[in-house]
Amino acid sequence: MPTAEKTLDEILTLAASHFKVPREKLSPDEDFFKTLGIDSLQALDLLTKLENHFSVELPDYELQGVSDFRTLASRIQSRL
Amino acid sequence: MSPIEALVRKGETMSIAYNDGLIEVTLHRTPCNEIGSRSLEELESLAGILKNLKQSAHALIISSDLKCGFSAGADLRELYERSRAMEKGEAAKGVREFLERIHQVLNIIDAAPMTTIAAVHGVTFGGGFELALACDLIIADKTARFAFPELRLGLIPGFGGIPRLKRDIGNAVVRDLLLTGRSFNTTKAQQIGLVSQVVAEGEALRAARATAAQLAKFDHQTAVTAKHFIKPVPHEDLKREIDIFCDLFSRPAVQAGLKKFVESTNAQPYLP
User: What residues of A are in contact with residue B148 (Cβ under 8 Å)?
Assistant: First the structure.
C-alpha cells in the first residue's frame, strides 16, 4: 500500500495533468475548487479519474465538504 | 415524405440522423441535457415515428455531444418554476401529466422495433440515467457516472428508473443506488451488469456504431422477437412509480427541497 504522502503526491500530479495547471501551483491544503476553478461536474470528473487511477470506489457523499487535496488523499488512503 | 425522412432533423434539444438502417439521436441541450418540456416534445416526436417503423432501421443510438456528459436528468429548474406558478392541485396534475408523457415515450423506446444503444459519457444522472436504461445496451466510456440523486429532494426517480433497473440488475444494487443517492463509475456499473461495454474516454459512440454494424448482419425480425422475449416492459411497476412520485411530490418538503436545489450557489449541487 502506498504511503499517505505518496497518495497525496499522485493526486496532485493527476489533478495538475487533468486540469492542465502547473503541478507547483497546487498545494495540499488549498481549496481545489478555487485553485482549479472547477465546478461540481468537473469535481465528479476528477473523482472518476481518481477512482480509476487508484482502483478504489469512493462514494461521493464521503466527499461532501471536502475541498482540499490532503483530506481527499486521506479519504482515498482509507480505501486502499 | 417517408417516416425515416420525417425523423431526420436538428431540433432544439437533440439532432436525429439516419444512415443505412442506423438512427442516431444526439442530445445537445446545454448545460447538460436536462430533460424538460421541450426535450419531451422532441422525444415524443421521435417516439411517434419509432413505433411505426418496421424494417427501415435495425439500430438506434442515443448519445450526447456535450462535454459534461449524457444527461444530468430532469430539468428541475423548469419543474420548480412551473409548479411554483400553479395552484397546488394544478401543479400535481401537471407533474402527473408530464410523467405520463415521458413514460409513454420511454416505453416506446424500451420496446422499439430495433436494438437501442445508449452511448454514454460523463454525468448520466436521474432522468438521463432513466433514458439510458430504456435502451437495450449501455456502452460507456471511462468518464461516465450513474446516479439517482432524487432522494435528496424527497422524491424517487420518476421516469421509470426503478422498475427498469429492477428488471436489469439485482435488487440490492438498486437499493444501494436509490437509497444512498451515490454515483457509480463505469467500472462499477459494468461489474453489476448495467453496462455492456467500457471503452476509453471519447470512444463510446464509435463502439456503439461498431455494435450497430454487427447487429445489421442479423435478421431484423428475429432480433426484435428476441428483444421482446427477453426485455418485457414492466408496465405495472411503471404505473405504480408514477403514483408514488406524485404522492411524494405533493408534500411541502419536496417544494422546499426543489427551491433549495434551484437557488443553491453551492459548488457541489450535484453531489448527493
Answer: none
Contact of A11 with A19, CB cutoff 8 Å: no
Residue A62: name the closest of B180, B151, B176 by CA: B180
Q: Domain B3-207+217-263 has what CATH class? A: alpha beta
Closest residue of B to A37, CA-based?
A: B267
Question: What angle do helix axes B76-84 and B252-263 make, rounded to 10 degrees?
Answer: 120
- Helix (H), strand (E) counts: chain B: 12, 11
Residue-wise pLDDT for B48-103, tens only, equals 988 878 778 999 999 999 999 999 999 988 888 877 777 767 878 888 999 999 99
The count of domains in chain A is: 1
pLDDT at A2: 79
CA distances from A66 to A42, A54, A71, B177 (A): 14, 18, 7, 22
Chain B hits for A52, CB-CB cut-off 8 Å, are 142, 185, 187
If you measure CA to CA, which chain B residue comes closest to A42? B68
Give residue B97's Cα distance to chain centre.
18
Q: What is the CATH number of the domain that holds A68?
A: 1.10.1200.10
DSSP of B70-109, one letter per residue? Answer: EE--B-HHHHHHHHHTS-HHHHHHHHHHHHHHHHHHHHHH
**Amino acid at the residue B120:** V
Question: ipTM of the assembly?
Answer: 0.85
Alpha-carbon span B100 to B104, nearest angstrom: 6
B28 Cβ contact list (under 8 Å, min separation 6): B13, B14, B15, B64, B65, B66
CB contact under 8 A, A40 and B270: yes
Question: What is the count of residue pairs from A and B with beta carbons less than 8 Å apart?
Answer: 56
Alpha-carbon span B82 to B48, nearest angstrom:
26
Query: Domain range holding A20?
Result: 4-77
Work out the number of other CB atoms within 10 angstroms of the CB of residue B132.
27
Nearest CA in chain A to B270: A40
- pLDDT: is B89 or A32 the higher one? A32
pTM over 0.95: no
